[in-house]
């Protein structure tokens, strides 16, 4: 057992787990034939754990919400015929009970459920005394604390084989991805819980087949422990998520094309090169901070003048100019202008804070 949540690493989950862990299967189980054909195809590609949606939380009513419990005999048949394990999403104690009764090997909690602590607690209570791996998807909203809270609730119920699934976050404006990956959130998760397996779900992030390879590779580059990918033997005819499911053959090609990265290599030449570059990064960071400190000193000076002359802290025209020119300068310096915009939003917020302090100084 490792880390502050006392969970088992993937290799001790008692399953035949590949590295990276691959879980693939249909968004929803539809028919016995669809499940059989899909699992047959996936097994040929080396997949050992099948994901299968039995109950589907849909945003709008009167859409397909999963076939429900009639899927279990088909799942059982596929388990026996192809010697695979099955993972199913649960959203209520009734789902947990049904899944356990039907020999499901792994459970996962979906993004909408993770967002609701009452639901997570109900599921956790129903898992007391049970020894089954549970994977917890990030909540639909970008709230790391809520994600961690869900893990803690499941952990407090006595579950020790816990993993997290990064499936991206709901958004209003992102037209590229179905769910924005917001990589900084899983990175922060991994930093805080390095021993909890973290799996990426490129299907729900991308929403479109064509984007999946790029996101899956990014996840492996960031040292994720595995991938959960939707696959259907005939995606265009799928009853749900048709655009993001891959044919088993295409999943096989994708898996073959992905490059897995090592955490580190024990090579003295690499280690010394890395150390030398890291020292240069340290020096550069020190310079960046010295420059930032110089800028803040100037901002404070402006604040003093504003105070003497009774001028407002927030200067919209000047700020517009700063906000327009810095990304332009950034392009010339081969920097991403979007990154520089975000950086300057933070710098400006800090400037305003500093000058407000100057204004309020000696007032009391
Ligand atoms: O130019 C000013 O008036 C400043 O106080 C500097 C500064 C900045 O950080 O660049 C800070 C606050 C203003 O809203 C605009 C610009």
From TrEMBL:
SMART domains assigned to the protein according to its UniProt record, in alphabetical order: CM_2
Domain Chorismate mutase stretches: 268-359
Presence of the UniProt keyword Transferase in the record: yes
Keyword terms, alphabetized: Transferase
Keyword Protease: no
Alphabetized Gene3D superfamilies for the sequence: Aldolase class I, Chorismate mutase
GO BP term, example: chorismate metabolic process
InterPro entries referenced in this protein's UniProt entry, alphabetically: Aldolase_TIM (IPR013785), Chorismate_II_sf (IPR036263), Class-I_DAHP_synthase (IPR052899), CM_dom_sf (IPR036979), CM_II_prokaryot (IPR002701), DAHP1/KDSA (IPR006218)
Superkingdom of this protein's organism: Bacteria
Source organism of this protein record: Rhodonellum psychrophilum GCM71 = DSM 17998
Protein name (record): chorismate mutase
Single Gene Ontology MF annotation: chorismate mutase activity
EC number per UniProt: 5.4.99.5
Enzyme class of the recorded protein, top EC level: isomerase
Lineage, uppermost ranks: Bacteria, Pseudomonadati, Bacteroidota, Cytophagia, Cytophagales
SUPFAM superfamilies: Aldolase, Chorismate mutase II
């Amino acid at each position: 057992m490792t880390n502050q949540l006392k969970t088992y690493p993937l290799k001790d989950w008692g399953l035949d787990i590949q590295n990276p862990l691959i879980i693939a299967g249909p968004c929803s189980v539809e028919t016995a034939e669809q499940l059989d054909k899909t699992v047959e195809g996936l097994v040929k590609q080396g997949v050992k754990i099948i994901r299968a949606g039995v109950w589907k939380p849909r945003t709008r009513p009167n859409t397909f919400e999963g076939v429900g419990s009639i899927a279990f005999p088909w799942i059982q048949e596929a388990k026996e015929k192809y010697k695979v394990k099955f993972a199913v999403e649960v959203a209520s104690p009734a789902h947990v009970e049904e899944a356990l009764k039907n020999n499901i090997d792994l459970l996962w909690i979906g993004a909408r459920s993770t967002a609701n602590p009452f639901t997570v607690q109900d599921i956790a209570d129903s898992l007391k005394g049970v020894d089954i791996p549970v994977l917890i998807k990030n909540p639909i909203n970008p709230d790391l604390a809520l994600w961690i809270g869900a893990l803690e609730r499941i952990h407090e119920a006595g579950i020790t084989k816990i993993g997290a699934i990064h499936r991206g976050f709901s958004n209003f404006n992102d037209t590229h991805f179905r769910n924005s990956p917001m990589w900084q959130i899983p990175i922060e998760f991994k930093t805080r819980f390095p021993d909890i397996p973290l799996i990426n779900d490129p299907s729900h992030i991308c929403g479109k087949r064509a984007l999946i390879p790029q996101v899956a590779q990014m996840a492996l580059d960031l040292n994720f422990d595995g991938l959960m990918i939707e696959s259907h033997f005939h995606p265009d005819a799928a009853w749900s998520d048709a655009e993001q499911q891959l044919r088993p053959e295409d999943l096989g090609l994708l898996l073959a094309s992905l490059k897995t990265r090592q955490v580190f290599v024990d090579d003295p030449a690499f280690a010394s090169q890395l150390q030398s570059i890291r020292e240069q990064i340290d020096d550069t960071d020190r310079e960046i901070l010295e420059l930032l400190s110089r800028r803040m000193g100037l901002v404070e000076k402006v604040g003093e003048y504003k105070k003497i002359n009774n001028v407002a802290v927030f200067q919209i025209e000047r700020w517009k100019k700063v906000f327009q020119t810095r990304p332009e300068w950034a392009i010339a310096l081969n920097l991403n202008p979007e990154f520089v915009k975000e950086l300057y939003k933070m710098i400006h917020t800090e400037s305003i804070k500093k000058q407000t302090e100057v204004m309020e100084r000696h007032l009391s």
